[in-house]
Design a protein that fits this description.
four-stranded antiparallel β-sheet, alpha+beta, 4 strands
Length: 161
């Protein structure tokens, strides 16, 4: 599915933070050189085409009081990946679930990102997950230093002349 030039420019603007104003779509419309209604209609079309899945805020967990941040690499039997993934997706403290290929020296195939008040709380959550999911093989990969965090830009915004 390809996007027309207007849709690409709209996606480029939506990939940035929405302006914190009373009428953010009007401000986007002004940047795009169109009407507010055209922006709203364009967004509806992108949602209908399943190009946009949702709008959401990005919360900086480290600035909001959540000091515990750990990626857990799990060994999950292949036949249980779907079941474990669906279960993990229900926990509010898990923000990401991934299945990845293993390597000869790295047998872990399932990854969850957990945020909690501190590292001790992360350990407790993982211990509980082990019991609930019937899993015992995992590695805890605590964040040591954040190097980069940004929103993915799919297209560059270029104002039409």
């Amino acid at each position: 599915m390809s996007l027309n030039p207007f849709q690409k420019r709209l996606v480029a603007l939506l990939s940035e933070s929405l302006p914190l104003v009373e009428r953010p779509y009007l401000e986007l419309a002004q940047k795009l050189g169109c009407s507010e209604e055209e922006v709203i209609q364009g967004i509806k079309e992108l949602i209908e085409k399943k190009i946009i899945r949702r709008f959401g805020a990005t919360v900086r967990h480290d600035r909001s009081g959540y000091r515990g941040n750990v990626m857990v690499a799990w060994i999950v039997p292949e036949e249980r990946l779907e079941e474990v993934g669906r279960k993990c997706a229900t926990y509010p403290f898990i923000t990401h679930c991934y299945v990845r290929k293993t390597a000869p020296d790295w047998p872990y195939n399932f990854y969850t990102m957990i945020h909690a008040e501190d590292e001790e709380a992360c350990h407790r959550l993982v211990k509980n997950l082990c019991q609930e999911l019937g899993l015992s093989n995992y590695e805890l990969l605590f964040t040591e230093k954040e190097i980069l965090r940004r929103t993915r830009r799919y297209f560059e915004f270029e104002k039409e002349v």
